[in-house]
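Running this now, will post back.
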Amino acid sequence: MKKLKVLICFLFLVIAGTTGLQAQDTQVKYLSGRGADDTVNWNFLCSAGRRSGKWTSIAVPSCWEQQGFGAYNYGHDPLKERLNETGTYRYTFTVPAGWKNLETRIVFEGVMTDAEVHINGMPAGAVHQGAFYEFGYNISKLLKFGGKNELQVLVKKNSGNASVNEAERTADFWMFGGIFRPVYLEAKPKMNIQRVAVDARGDGAFTADVYLSGFRQAAAVQVKLTPLPVKPSKTGKTVVLSAAVTGAKTQIKGTAGNVLTWTPELPNRYRAVFELLDQEGRVLHRYNETIGFRTVEVRDADGVYVNGVRIKMKGVNRHTFHPKYGRTSSKALSIRDVNTIKDMNMNAVRMSHYPPEKHFLDACDSLGLFVLDELTGWQKPPYDDTVGLKLLKEMVIRDVNHPGILLWDNGNEGGNNYTLDTMFGKLDIQQREVLHPWQQFGKFNTAHYISYNYLAHDDHSRRKIFLPTEFMHGLYDGGAGAGLEDYWQQMWRDPLCAGGFIWDYADEALERTDRNDSLDTDGNHAPDGILGPYLEKEGSYYAVREIWAPVFFEQRYITPAFDGKFRIENRFIYTDLKECHFEASWIKCPGPGMKAPVEKDLAKPVTVSLKPGQKGTLEVDMPGGWMRYDALQITARDPFGRLIHTWTWPVKSAGQSAAELLPRVTYGATRLSEEGDSWQVAVGELRLSFNKKTALLTRVMRNGVVIPLSNGPVLISREQVLKKVACYQQQDTVYLSALYESGNDFTWKIGPDGLARLTVNYEPKNNNLFAGVSFDFPESEVTGIRWLGNGPYRVYKNRLKGASFGLWEKAYNNTVTGESGYIYPEFKGYHAGTYWAELGAKDKKGFTVYIASDDIFLRLFTPPTPRSPAKTAIEYPPGNISFLHSINAIGTKFDSLQGPQAALNPFNGYKLYEGLLQLKLVFDFNPAPPEQ
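Update: finished.
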């Protein structure tokens, strides 16, 4: 019995101690779910539109349109005034009886757009206006502790404040209604730390403003700073700093020695545990933050510096968006997005055009991204002074401690309230600079969608730091990676350029629940992404990744004189290349008709040590007989194993490759005959027909099956006047040729091996869009393609990066980038550096073509034009399949020509080129021989 009493006493003490410990910390009870993947059903009544006029239930958090309520509208929608639904939410919840003596608040992380909150029939406080901002109310006096409570929230989709509507709801993005971010209760002791604002510098200097409530019985505040190193090998000691309580705002100042600094390349953070202490040193309340030590400086007429190093931001604009959930997100989606942004070798993200979810900023901090955080505003008149200041306070108070945030944005493209500019500094302990995106303001020029010539930096703001907060508009397949290489070469060399932000991250294609979940981009307003709506990788994804790779390879070709050395540059800001991992492989690819796998022989480990900004040499091991391989591949990974990029160089020329791969089969004698207006050439079961007047191929038949390649080669880029056609047989070989008045010509050569060899000599038009030859082939017959060359994505003249040399295969699709299909890589378009290709067609009507000339583009049909292409529509050559020496560029939403790579193709006469351009093709229409 005595032992039992001791045990009971011990348990009582444990329980009492645990209760005391819990009372010291803020306790949180979620009333909603925590994100799009974790929701709670509340009662709901929608006032108008779909499913309106009756009580039902809705998932919280969510956008009510995506739950089947109300009506849709994009910000440009002229009917938006008719779409002003309201939603009434009700939810019953309980509050622990133990919270009776605590301060209890209800917190809303985001409501679109006005929220009127009642607890047990009583107003919780003033109506909150503004969609993207966290707000809350002290509801301690309204609650029934230990019993049931009713929460009612009236949400107005359109605000009662005209300036909120102008700033938020007439913008160029989808509009939603609802409680779209989580809702929770938090309980603290009545003597508590309300919040903290931290300024932690890269040299270890630490300042924190600690805001207190019920502080009069408190004696001191202290903070324990514990390192959270990214690399386990890096350790540090917990530092404790303290200060006596001096008032409702008490400041802690001190220095932490040997701090692990935060950068996007090494995002070390610290757990900061703040404690409010009484006279005896007992903890009254405990408050946690995660911070980073780093120093941000904007040096006038110089640049942006972080920890004393000038940076360039390789950034992207990002909406909080998901096709199914609208603006409702989740921690998993935030982490996914930050990882995807970093996978493109970006180091920065702009919050366009509103503060994001807290967990997105947490992911930026922990994984490493610079951030521009933005007060909402878009071209229209901005927030008025009263509501603007209130929302600004909510944004800064919530986000002030994130080390990733370097700068604040005050609105966008003219939606700036100038009276708020000075308030940023008054609210932000770190005194971060303020941008007006699109304007020349303060120390910055943030001009949007600048022309390439603007990069000459000869405008009227030469001394300002150049940071275009939007550029390379990615409408459909234009912009983003297309044109970026030209721009980035200039921006990289410009010491006053602090980088730039591509528009934008992903297509805002919304699953319309009123249209059987079909995707809607509101015409050409929202398909602007580097990625598709479900983060499908478009061609620009890979182009951006290569162009912005922090390991930069100087261009070179592998020739027989290759010595294994590459000139490279370290374009990291803080990382030595000795911390990265490089792997070199020699690649052997199977030829046409061969189903063997690609062979990869690893070279000896590659090591290289270069400090940031240094140039040097990377050398790979050269195996004996290295010319037998098809390609050399180098893969680089950062210190954490994240792929930087894989670069591949062909080892052989196209002519060498063709000579090795051409089948060596004899099908019998070659027979030449005439039939009406055609010459007929027969080899075995193969029959080729050529027009007597033009020498163009008109029909191919194999074993009685028509292979529908015809009407070629048609020379493109200038008109041709035919001068002479010839056809003759010499021994076992038939020759057919055409000579033009210009001196251009082509010749067919068909021998016993059944191969149709074509040689074209021509002078293209000067300043041409494209130059080469075309054939016809019915698109309806095509099933796919397998080829050796750059792929798997198509290219444009101003987007050659991102496509990699190798063996590729893809099925036919008719995707309109950003508009329909969303199957990537797209089938149709230009494909660079092609060596050979097997075109698949129905009923074995396909064929193989070998390209024995270097740097030839294979054009596969004409991609469909989007319904509203702006300046992204381009012209394609006549015919369906083309072999081209030159191709044209694609434009952006606003510009047709962005830089040198977008210019027309010059050809200043054959005398300057030592003769005509030559194109050599070999067509194999015979069945593939059995594999050896």
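The chain is about 10% helix and 35% strand. More later if anyone needs it.
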